[in-house]
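Incident log, support desk, overnight shift.

02:14 A customer reports that sequence design results differ from what the structure should imply. Their input is reproduced verbatim below. On-call engineer (initials T.W.) acknowledged and began investigating.
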């Protein structure tokens, strides 16, 4: 015997309508849930890349390892002004590492080794955009007391991709050590003597180097000869932006 009662048609329709409304309401609540958009990943940092080629133009003066200094608002040297301790050190010993401790220096990159006369070296320099400002290049003429050459405060922002610029450098005198050319005072192969000496016994201002005198010119205590003379320019520098 069937104990369930059949609902009238109008009540069945009402129950169906209520069920449908509840189902649609549940679906509507689900569809209105706000979507969370994940943050966009940061754009990758693309470095600017430069190829720096330095050529030793002298006949018989080796150059100390080429030092590239990426920096902001400073000058590696100023003609007529005293040399900084970092400049004195590289001009007397060929060691440019002290530039890395100077304010507003972003990076110091050093070449592979001594640059012999007539030879070239190319060094790649990769800089983050925030570090692209100015470039200075320094090297010591090692068979001298305190001669150096290079490029002072070139603005890298002037170079477009695939653009190349060329410079030539004379020899400068740091003005920190007397050009005695005496035995034990030159770090190069002509002597193998002392490099940096903190005592300043010259004019204490940067100026164009007058050239070596040598024993062949009557400087009897000199360890140099006419073989070590040099004319200007002493360096050729090429900077190419590759990226």
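02:41 Re-run completed on a clean worker. Output:
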């Amino acid at each position: 015997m069937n104990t369930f009662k059949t609902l009238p048609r109008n009540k069945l329709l009402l129950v169906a309508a209520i069920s449908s409304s509840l189902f649609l309401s549940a679906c509507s609540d689900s569809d209105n849930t706000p979507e969370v958009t994940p943050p966009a990943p940061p754009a990758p940092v693309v470095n600017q890349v430069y190829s720096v080629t330095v050529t030793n133009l002298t006949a018989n003066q080796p150059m100390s390892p080429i030092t590239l200094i990426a920096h902001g608002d400073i000058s590696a040297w100023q003609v007529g002004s005293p040399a900084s301790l970092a400049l004195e050190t590289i001009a007397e010993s060929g060691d440019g590492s002290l530039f890395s401790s100077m304010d507003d220096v972003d990076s110091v990159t050093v070449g592979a080794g001594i640059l012999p006369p007539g030879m070239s070296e190319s060094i790649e320099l990769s800089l983050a955009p925030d570090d692209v400002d100015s470039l200075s290049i320094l090297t010591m003429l090692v068979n001298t007391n305190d001669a150096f050459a290079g490029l002072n405060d070139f603005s890298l922002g002037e170079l477009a991709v695939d653009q190349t610029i060329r410079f030539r450098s004379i020899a400068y005198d740091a003005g920190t050590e007397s050009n005695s050319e005496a035995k034990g005072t030159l770090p190069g192969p002509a002597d193998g003597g002392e490099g940096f000496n903190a005592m300043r016994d010259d004019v204490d201002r940067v100026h164009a180097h007058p050239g070596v005198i040598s024993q062949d010119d009557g400087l009897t205590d000199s360890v140099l000869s006419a073989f070590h003379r040099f004319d200007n320019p002493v360096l050729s520098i090429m900077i190419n932006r590759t990226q």
